[in-house]
Amino acid sequence: MASFNLKMQIFRNKVEEKFLSFYMWPYWFSYQNKRFMESYLPAYKKSQYKKNSIQCILELIYLTFYWKCLPYHYFRYGLYKKGTSLKEIKNYLPESVFFYRIMPKLNKNYLLLDNKNLCDDILRANNLPLPKTILKIRKDTIFNNFGEVIGNNNQMNSYLHAQTAKEIIAKPADCGSGGKEIIIFTKKDGDYIYNNEKLGYGTIMKKFKGDWIFQEVITNIPLLNEAHPNSVNSFRVMTLLDKNGPLVLYSILKIGNNLARTDNAHTKGIYVGVDLPTGKLFDKAYDEDLNEFEEHPLTKFKFSGKVIPNFSKVLEIAKKAALFFPETKVIGWDIALTENGPIILEGNSSPGLTIIQRTNNGMNKFCKIAYGIIKNKK
User: Fold this and answer.
1) How many CB atoms are closer than 10 A to CB 178?
2) CA nearest 48: which of 14, 96, 89, 80?
3) CB-CB contact of 86 with 62 (8 Å)
4) Which residue spans within 40-111 are E strands per DSSP?
5) What φ, ψ does residue 147 adopt, rounded to 5°?
6) 209: Cβ–Cβ under 8 A, 6 or more apart, which residues?
7) CA-angle at 270, arms to 264 and 273, nearest 5°
């Protein structure tokens, strides 16, 4: 039986590597066209610094043959702007190459990360710092933070009344992404309330279908609160696990915007690169629509010159966590920095290609590995 299971695993891995791009093509093509019309094309048209049309066309043709795919990323990252050389352009990976050619060869068992309940179990069992988990829903069964089943309203009320968290955040646990569907409950008179509705057994069974995780909302260090106090502004840290151990390749600070409670780019958040050795923020931040900011558009928090205290501890936690997912070589960790130190919010098998490339002028470090993978070199 063990031999059979091993053969099945090898078969699944080979199928994913060879046929994922064909399976995902309709979704990817539709998504890229939508983003092109909504954001990339308008940004191209209004740009006052773009190269002449002939040069853009020649670069598009070159990239099409070079990467053997449609070069949507040429517009996604504003590579048509004057001063961007072809050598620099080649540091940017197309989404189809990254997700469908490279990542299947690097990442296996990614559901251990993308299911937030499983990821929480693994990290907590290895004593890594995490927010307090209040509840988990697995296949419509509710568990408390001791792993005990909560089966009725009385048990739920008694358990929740004993909690001290001021706020509880509920997130889809099974492959949730981008801050969507997140709900935050605030404690009022002993109950947790969202939109005048009380969190209870009946509410959960009715509205929270599938897998969910409920955790205590944590608080930023003062510097990150200055940037945007309504959200937990976390660091996306990209790790790569090789034979010599985990490496940190990139780090980005994600910052909420428009008083949103989340820091995700898909909820209008912005993001700025962080220098790995020093913890110093880069001079410019970006958003999903190719806008650039030298200061936060709402709080006027200036990025240039800001240094994150104890940033090395954030990187160390990411490297420690990467060791417990040896078959998932590339991981994007979301890590908050609190007065009590760094806290891991979640791990992502998709590390955040867009925010990494925009803040780091492509992925030159990673590209050195990527070129080898594309040419079937180890």
Assistant:
1) 12
2) 80
3) yes
4) none
5) 80, 15
6) 140
7) 105
- Closest residue by Cα to residue 151 from 110, 73, 205: 205
Q: Given a cut of 80, is residue 369 above it in pLDDT?
A: no
Q: What is the pLDDT of residue 69?
A: 92
Write down the residue that tokens 């939508």 correspond to: 34
Closest CA to 63 of 102, 32, 41, 93: 93
| Pick from 54, 92, 56: nearest CA to 73 | 92
How does DSSP assign 117-181, residue by residue?
HHHHHHHHHTT---PPEEEEEETTEEEETTSPEE-SHHHHHHHHHT---SEEEEEE-BS--TTTT
**pLDDT, tens digit (0-9, with 9 covering 90-100), for 37-65:** 988 999 899 999 999 999 999 999 999 99
What letter represents residue 44's amino acid? Y
User: Are 295 and 302 in contact, with CB atoms under 8 Å apart?
Assistant: yes
Q: In angstroms, rounded to a whole number, what is the distance separating the alpha carbons of residues 167 and 144? A: 16
Reported residue count of the chain is 378
In whole angstroms, how far apart are CA 13 and each of 19, 96, 310? 10, 18, 39
Question: What whole-number distance in Å separates Cα of residue 130 and Cα of residue 241?
Answer: 21
User: For residue range 334-362, what is the model confidence (pLDDT) as tens digits?
Assistant: 999 999 999 999 999 989 999 999 999 99
CB of 238 closer than 8 Å to CB of 215: no
pLDDT for position 340: 94
Quick: pLDDT tens for 300-324: 999 999 999 999 999 999 999 999 9
Average pLDDT over the chain reads: 89
Domains of the chain: 13-106 (no CATH), 133-216 (no CATH), 220-371 (3.30.470.20)
For 93-126, letters b (16+ CB in 10 Å) and e give bbbbbbbbbbbbebbbebebbbbbbbbbeebeee
Most confident among 27-31, 105-109, 309-313, 365-369 (mean pLDDT): 309-313
